[in-house]
Write a structure and sequence with these properties.
By secondary structure, the protein is an alpha/beta fold. It has two domains: 3-220, no CATH class; 237-627, Alkaline Phosphatase, subunit A (3-Layer(aba) Sandwich). The chain is 44% helix and 14% strand. Helix 12 (237-245) crosses helix 20. The chain is globular and about 90 Å long.
């Protein structure tokens, strides 16, 4: 193209580079204390960020480059041609401004660059748009974004006033081929994993990314093949090692090519067939609860409940999303790279906790205050034998408040009471899997319940704490209460971001078992994974079942074998003792000594071959068994 065409494209490219660099600087300033301030880390963070920005800028220029290539020169020297091009650029600039503001807000919530969470929010447009409209003044924001896009387009328009010359098609074809080649090469050569080398501080790693680049990368990286991206155990040793890990005095394997086994439990509760209500609480971090170590507690009712309950003080969530929590609690498996099993094909008729209860003649329900198509929750639980009771089943006249995510928790718990009443009237024992929603942006709740501000995380947590207490008080009036075990557990923490890779303190979650007169109050301080809750609970209830669980009843395992699993969508962490081993893409292995669990202070150490082998057996085993259909009933 002639010089004025190139000048215009150059202005488009520079606007992307400058705007994203300024956004990166703004994020650095607003989260200043969290970043590494070493000069080399700072330089690497911003320099690599500029590289990703350049890739985004190259793609951003493509629409304008195509138009400049196909529009007749006679059009470009007239107003109608320039306006056609500027209309396209106005749209592109709006996307750029929208992406920048969205990334800024996403950073405030998750302290990361765009990742697969952002991809999920785009897929579920109703929840995403509804949440944005409820949480932010869009009547002000949208016109402001449009005005900013208009200002950028006005700056670019200055480069459309020039002596555009007739195109020389041969030269244009060569230039177009070079441009296409550069775009293709940049897309295939630039690697998102480069960010991992800018600093040991995870905030710097996230800041080094580009929002648009990170979003596109996350979109295509939602499914990761374990054998392609991670270190492997060969010759079937992963399965044999895993079977050895799952051996227990009360379990007998009933297959040679998997982990299927018969688990036999016998105690004073055997034969009672107690009801179970498992309340999975949205984003209930241990750092909110005084009973689990918080200096300032937002859960006074749960703290008081602990005195009458059996608590697991050192339980760690397997991931950072609700679907990961439901996966661990329902399937009792460690996380597999990419998406949760709840969102994958082939997840029907699996060996779930509900299946174990149904083997003991229970009715099983999944009760949710929102629309359960989100994250395929309804699809998964219905395909695995649960009866679905979500927002669709709740009469509108019973709802005093709801957000796009679901009804207020007290409304949800009223549905649980109705469901339990119906099961009692039919003479059935029931397992109710309940998922709350109130502790979620925009953090609004019914007035007059708690003395806490609306639209704040603290207010939402205090309200959920109140709603659980209110539910238990109402349940005490029911004839089925004396035969019911209540389990209160988080799906994940509110935020998993930290200065270190896989910060262990950001995965610590509360777990309370409340069953007065049935299970004595007590405190268990052993290290355990969220996926261990299902077999441990069944053991406490004295229920026997056929199992494909990878979690373990910790009462049947020596303390020396305690371990936990923590993960992002691609980094798989395995904790044993005070050592964290991380399996990552590119077949990387890293190990750390955990020096401070509450602050996630780590010291890099040499890999322990024995622990690495154990980590591989769990993670590779989970992936292989799922794909082979060996986690099914």
């Amino acid at each position: 193209m002639k010089s004025y065409r190139c000048r215009f494209l150059g202005s488009v490219f520079l606007i992307v580079i400058i705007s994203q660099s300024l956004l990166r600087l703004l994020l650095f300033i607003v989260s200043f204390s969290a970043f590494s301030h070493q000069i080399l880390d700072f330089i690497r963070t911003f320099a690599l960020g500029a590289v990703y920005d350049a890739v985004t800028g190259a793609f951003f220029c493509v629409p304008a480059a195509v138009l400049l290539g196909i529009l007749p020169t006679g059009w470009l020297v007239k107003r109608r041609g320039r306006w056609s091009l500027l209309a396209v650029m106005l749209f592109m600039n709006f996307l750029l401004v929208f992406e920048s503001v969205a990334l800024f807000l996403f950073w405030q919530e998750f302290h990361t660059n765009f990742n697969f969470i952002a991809v999920d929010y785009l897929i579920y447009t109703n929840e995403m748009i509804g949440n944005i409209c409820q949480a932010y003044p869009m009547g002000i924001i949208l016109p402001a974004l449009l005005a900013a896009a208009g200002a950028l387009t006005w700056l670019q328009a200055r480069y459309l006033h020039g002596p555009f010359q007739q195109k020389q098609w041969r030269k244009l074809a060569v230039q177009a081929a070079v441009a296409i080649l550069l775009v293709v090469v940049s897309a295939n050569v630039i690697d998102d994993d480069w960010r991992e080398h800018v600093s040991t501080n995870q905030y710097n790693v996230e800041l080094a990314g580009d929002g648009s680049y990170g979003f596109v990368h996350a979109f295509f990286a939602n499914e990761l093949d374990y054998h392609q991206f991670y270190v492997n155990e060969e010759n079937g040793t992963a399965l044999s090692d895993l079977r050895q890990q799952l051996q227990a005095d009360n379990a007998t394997f009933n297959e040679d090519d998997g982990i299927g086994r018969r688990v036999t439990n016998q105690n004073d509760l055997t034969g009672r067939h107690l009801n179970v209500v498992m309340i999975t609480v949205e984003s209930l971090s241990s750092s909110y609860s005084g009973a689990f170590g918080a200096r300032t507690s937002w859960t006074p009712n749960l703290d008081a409940l602990v005195a009458e309950s059996y608590t697991f003080q050192r339980m760690y969530a397997t991931g950072t999303r609700t679907v990961r929590g439901l996966e661990a609690l329902s399937l009792s498996v460690p996380p597999t790279p990419g998406q949760s099993i709840l969102r994958r094909p082939g997840n029907e008729d699996m060996a779930t906790l509900g299946d174990a209860f149904r083997q003991n003649q229970y009715q099983t329900d999944f009760i949710y205050g929102g629309y359960g198509y989100f994250d395929n929750m309804n699809g998964f639980f219905e395909a695995n034998g649960y009866t679905i009771k979500d927002r669709v089943s709740i009469p509108n006249e019973e709802i005093m408040q709801e957000t796009v995510w679901g009804v207020a928790d007290e409304v949800l718990f009223s549905q649980v009471l109705k469901s339990m009443d119906a099961h009692y009237a039919s003479g059935d024992r029931a397992y109710e899997m309940v998922m709350t929603t109130s502790n979620h942006s925009p953090y609004t709740f019914p007035q007059g319940r708690v003395d806490a501000p609306q639209e704040t995380r603290e207010g939402a947590v205090r309200y959920t704490d109140w709603a659980i207490y209110d539910f238990l008080q109402r349940a005490k009036e029911k004839p089925w209460f004396k035969d019911t075990v209540f389990v209160i557990v988080a799906d994940h923490q509110a935020s998993a971001a930290g200065k270190t890779e896989l910060p262990v303190d950001k995965y610590h979650i509360p777990c309370i078992i409340y069953a007065p007169g049935l299970i004595p109050a007590g405190r268990n301080d052993r290290l355990m994974s969220q996926m261990d809750l299902a077999p441990t609970l069944l053991g406490m209830l004295g229920l026997s079942y056929d199992s494909h669980f990878m979690g373990r009843d910790i009462a049947k395992v020596p303390v020396s074998e305690d371990r936990a699993f923590i993960s992002t969508y691609q980094s798989m962490g395995y904790i044993k003792g005070n050592t964290l081993t991380v399996l990552d893409t590119g077949k990387k292995i890293r190990s750390y000594q955990i020096e401070d669990w509450e602050k996630s202070i780590y010291q890099p150490i040499d890999n322990d071959p024995a622990q690495v082998e154990e980590a591989m057996s769990w993670y590779q085993g989970a992936s292989d068994l799922f794909h082979a259909g060996k986690l099914h009933q």
